[in-house]
Design a protein that fits this description.
Radius of gyration: 26 Å
Number of helices: 15
Structural class: alpha+beta
Helix content: 10-25%
Low-confidence stretches: 1-21, 634-651
Distance between the termini: 68 Å
Mean pLDDT: 92
């Protein structure tokens, strides 16, 4: 076979593995190759002299990944699972399909790759296969262990996958951690990671680092040759999440798996497979945003009937707790709460509880009047008085409301207004407790018409010693998603694992947090929103909770200090630059009432898209995106006329009203005429440096006039000095037009475009 001839070729290369510096590392190996469908990427696989699998990746004449080792170290008698392999069989395949996501950034996604499957074996009967898929925009590969194998049950000590970089690339990174991604991003050279690492770690309810050169995926890189690289993983199922540990002398990354409570980094049983390891390689920053590499490496939708899954634009009784204006808890009488024992009917309310009947109705009214779909209510259930920081197991039952929250009456009131309530399940990171109560908790949601839940995992994990990203927790999160699907419930998980494209398989996972979001208020650096679409959002949408119009925290709670580093126009731009089928207008109704002309864009903008065009971008600097709405999925657009004919006020979503220009007394004929209207939304976000960007409108229909509502930073806008300064202009634009737009420090812009009929 060809691989027997490779041994002599790579013997000299194997001797150089330990040499220092990227320039001294082996540059080329010869072996089995595949190319991407367009021919620009080339993968090479070979065995070193000692039988170690290794791979390299090139783009045209440029090296991307230098020869890098593959394999494992195992516990028990497994020992080394890296050396001593021979090639048993090599097969190739190609695949090309177009699939339609239930929701997404476009109506159709092409999944086109060439594949190389290498079956490896040892004389003792150990078998390990390597599957490589090469796309036009990158590489995915994984380990597979067949059932015909000496290895049946085995435990991973370390995964030894390497990514050998060609030099000291620029990176946008957050510190490696087993429990959280809630960090600001740092831009630096790889050689600078060690020196900046400690300064980037911040306090979190649960966090554990592992190395001063550890970073997390998705890791965005840029080479001096101008290539944009992104290292990540896809389809993490029954396996721990990986970080990356950097050898900053040689610029080599190695996977660093999250251990379980006993230090095991994966308990496997053949037949099994690992997640995909991915390397995106593109020439333009906008191509990173357009890539669907992670989604394509996941399995197709597993839910047969998806009619109950839909995008959601919501508000909530949440920001007032985050800012300290109100509280999740009900009383100060009980410093110690015991589930099923503490009697709240005898407690004196402290008067700061946010989830009370009057306040919830106020939010429902405002949401209904402005065309939203739902209201999130946190702190509705018993147990909040002493849960935080105590590592309690039995904390909440997710069923028993506080005395001032009438679950039946509030749901009836919300439904009468065309609004659904979003359930909140803070698990307190006790996965044991959540699994005890998940079935009756979901039954309660079904009883009262809740169709979505925000789950939370604040604090250290119970069972004690587990981590948020360990294998047992990965399995827990997926169990919850599957159980929710059985109950036709959509899930928005906070403090859970970062997503890796599983929303393709389980589209009821409509949102995740898994990054530093708006709740960090003044702690978020200007420009944070210009990095997340390159990193965190590569694996799936984020519930970023944008739409904050009051940036000065002292105006909300006098004892709170700090100003958020963004402008109102920046907040509007996020609704377009961040994709999520779950978008929140997170601020208080009274703050929006002060700026209703700017709030109009949040009311108008869609949350599900037929087409997305990434106009201009640079990670950590700015992003400009245009999107065309999926008209059939504009929230309540399909039912708008029917509900209006039934006499229900405010039943049409804001986005539907904007697209169709429907009056309150709309008829079926009105809807039919308006459906011919073409609509686009454009958004931009900026870092801490004021700049101008040129926005070309060549994505519009040629020869057609569009009325444009343009929301801009004011002339004096600045995130420190005048964050609420904005201006709104109206223009008529065509595909031949372009605009030079100024974005302030921490600023942005938003544009609604509607075809003139």
């Amino acid at each position: 076979m060809i691989f027997k001839r490779l041994i002599a070729i790579v013997a000299a290369a194997a001797a150089l593995w330990s040499c220092g510096g990227a320039g001294n590392r082996v540059q080329t190996i010869e072996g089995e190759t595949i190319t991407s469908p367009d021919g620009h990427l080339k993968l090479v696989f070979a065995l070193a002299q000692d039988g170690t699998p290794m791979y390299s990746l090139d783009k045209d004449s440029l090296k991307v990944v230098l020869p890098s080792k593959l394999g494992f170290a195992l516990f028990d008698n497994g020992g080394d699972l890296q050396t001593g392999f021979t090639v048993k069989e090599v097969t190739r395949d190609s695949f090309d399909e177009v699939w339609e996501p239930v929701w997404g950034e476009e109506a159709q996604i092409r999944n086109h790759y060439n594949e190389l499957l290498v079956a490896l074996g040892r004389e003792d009967g150990t078998a390990m296969n390597l599957r490589f898929r090469l796309y036009d925009d990158g590489l995915g590969f994984r380990y597979e262990f067949p059932v015909e194998n000496k290895l049946t049950y085995f435990s991973v000590k370390e995964e030894l996958t390497e990514f050998a970089m060609t030099g000291d690339h620029t990176a946008w990174w957050i510190p490696g951690d087993y429990d959280t991604q809630e960090y600001n991003y740092t831009e630096s050279r790889l050689s600078e990671v060690r020196g900046k690492y400690e300064g980037m770690r911040i306090h979190n309810a649960s966090a554990e680092g592992f190395s001063p050169t550890g970073v997390q995926t998705a890791l965005q890189l840029k080479t001096d040759d101008g290539l944009y690289l992104n290292i990540h993983e896809a389809e993490v199922v029954d396996y721990p999440t990986t970080n990356l540990e950097l050898d900053d002398k040689n610029f080599v990354f190695r996977t660093w798996l999250t251990p379980d409570a006993e230090g095991v980094k994966g308990r496997l049983q053949a037949p099994c497979k690992t997640p995909w390891r991915t390397v995106m390689v593109v020439e333009k920053a906008v191509d990173v945003l357009a890539s669907r590499l992670i989604l394509n490496l996941n399995e197709p939708c597993a839910i047969e009937d998806v009619s109950w899954i839909h995008p959601v634009k919501y508000m909530g009784v949440w920001w007032e707790m985050i800012t300290g204006k109100s509280a999740w808890s009900y009383t100060d009488d009980y410093p110690s709460v015991q589930l099923g024992v503490t009697d709240y009917s005898k407690a004196k309310p402290h008067g700061r509880h946010g989830a009370n009947n009057e306040n919830v109705r106020r939010h429902i009214d405002f949401a209904a009047e402005n065309g939203f779909d739902a209201i999130l209510v946190e702190g509705w259930n018993e147990g909040w008085e002493d849960w935080y920081g105590h590592k309690k197991d039995f904390v909440f039952d997710f069923q028993t409301p506080y005395p001032d929250f009438d679950i039946a009456a509030l749901n009836e009131y919300a439904h009468s207004k065309g609004i659904r309530l979003v359930m909140h399940h803070e698990t307190s990171s006790s996965t044991l407790n959540y699994e005890r109560f998940i079935e009756p908790a979901y039954d309660l949601m079904n009883k009262y018409g809740y169709n979505s839940v925000k789950s939370g995992y604040v604090g250290d994990i119970i069972p004690y010693g587990e981590h948020h990203y360990s294998q047992p927790l990965i399995n827990h999160y997926l169990l919850c998603i599957k159980k929710a699907a059985e109950h036709h419930i959509m899930v928005n998980a906070h403090e859970a694992v970062r997503p890796t494209g599983l929303c393709r398989t389980w589209p009821n996972l409509i949102g995740n947090e898994a990054a530093m979001g708006t709740e960090y208020r003044a702690g978020i650096h200007a420009g944070h929103a210009t990095v997340l679409p390159f990193t965190r959002l590569q694996g799936g949408p984020m519930d970023y909770t944008p739409g904050i119009f009051e940036m000065d925290m002292s105006r909300i709670v006098p004892t709170e200090h700090g100003k958020m580093q963004m402008t109102i126009a920046n907040q509007l731009g996020i609704y377009v630059t961040f994709y999520s089928p779950l978008q929140m207008a997170a601020d208080f109704p009274e703050h929006y009432q002060r700026f209703m002309d700017a709030f109009q864009f949040i009311k108008d903008v869609a949350v599900d898209w037929d087409k997305s065009v990434y106009l201009d971008a640079e990670p950590g600097a700015y992003i400009v995106t245009a999107r065309h709405p999926k008209l059939a999925s504009l929230n309540k657009a399909q039912e708008s006329v029917a509900t209006l004919k039934d006499g229900k006020k405010n039943a049409v979503s804001g986005a539907a009203k904007y697209v169709y220009a429907l009056p309150e007394n709309a008829t079926t004929a009105d809807l039919a005429r308006a459906k011919a209207r073409d609509v686009w939304y454009v958004g931009g976000v900026n870092d801490e440096n004021a700049r101008e960007v040129l926005v070309a409108f060549d994505f519009l229909k040629p020869g057609v006039n569009y009325e444009a509502d343009i929301y801009l930073d004011g002339d004096d806008a600045d995130y420190e000095i005048a964050p609420q300064s904005y201006k709104i202009e109206k223009r008529t634009l065509t595909s031949a037009d372009s605009l030079t737009v100024r974005m302030a420090r921490g600023g942005g812009f938003a544009i609604s475009l509607r075809e003139l009929l």
